[in-house]
Amino acid sequence: MPTINIKLEIWRQEDSISDGIFESYNLNDISTDMSFLEMLDVLNEELTHKNLEPVAFDHDCREGICGTCGAVVNGIAHGPEPGTTLCQLHMRHFKNGETIVVEPFRSRAFKVQRDLVIDRSSLDRIIQSGGYVSVNTGGTPEGNSIPIPSQTSELAMDAAACIGCGACIASCPNGSAMLFTSAKISQLALLPQGQPERKERAQNMVRTMDLERFGNCTNEKECEAVCPKNISIRNIARLNREYLKGILTGL
Ligand code: FES
């Protein structure tokens, strides 16, 4: 099994009010089949054996589904592989002897809690302000009772692939949450099921985005480039249309 030796420069920060610093660690004989998070597990095991504090990092499914993991690796959110979450990034994408710099997602709206862990609750508050449909649905309707063109359902499903990891925000020079918010708005606006509250949804979610101190979009496209789910910035154009419609209809 091929293995590599690496040097890690990892951001260490005790809590949200302390100053952080990069610390260096050497790791030898890392299997190239390991995921990035498994490599961090190995590091933490070594640190624990030496009675040192392990590196705190977020993770849950480790299958690219939940959106919990995330860090900036060598300057790129989720690392060098396009369309890949940190948990799905494998060590075969790094060279023997390479120095790998790991730091948390940084943005005005994301506070570093400890090491690589950040507070992403601002994204939850955007969803709470409009990313839902509050309507009594009754029993499960017959599957074919609401016909939806396949192209439309594809677009809605593509938007619904957003896992809310925050890579788009960490990569945007404006710290904008437009890609995230636009995906959540699109998945509802495109489908008949999302029509209740459609008019006020974009208004409310954009207002919350501003309150949470996310920046605006200036078409840098960094968000699209790092999105592990390849969410398109075309969704941002849809968000802008939804927002404008809300204004023109007097909301
Ligand atoms: S841990 Fe769930 S997406 Fe990475």
Automatic annotation (TrEMBL):
Alphabetical GO biological process terms: aerobic respiration; respiratory electron transport chain
Molecular function, one GO term: 2 iron, 2 sulfur cluster binding
InterPro entries named among the record's database cross-references: 2Fe-2S_ferredoxin-like_sf, 2Fe2S_fd_BS, 4Fe4S_Fe-S-bd, 4Fe4S_Fe_S_CS, Beta-grasp_dom_sf, Helical_ferredxn, SDH/FRD_Iron-Sulfur, Succ_DH/fum_Rdtase_N
KW Metal-binding (keyword) present: yes
PROSITE patterns noted in UniProt: 2FE2S_FER_1 (PS00197), 4FE4S_FER_1 (PS00198), 4FE4S_FER_2 (PS51379)
Metal-binding recorded as keyword: yes
Reported cofactor(s): [2Fe-2S] cluster; [3Fe-4S] cluster
All residue ranges annotated as the 4Fe-4S ferredoxin-type domain in the record: 153-183
Keywords: Iron, Iron-sulfur, Metal-binding
PANTHER family assigned to the protein according to its UniProt record, in alphabetical order: SUCCINATE DEHYDROGENASE, SUCCINATE DEHYDROGENASE IRON-SULFUR PROTEIN
Family classification: Belongs to the succinate dehydrogenase/fumarate reductase iron-sulfur protein family.
Protein name, as recorded: Succinate dehydrogenase/fumarate reductase iron-sulfur subunit
Organism: Candidatus Desulfatifera sulfidica
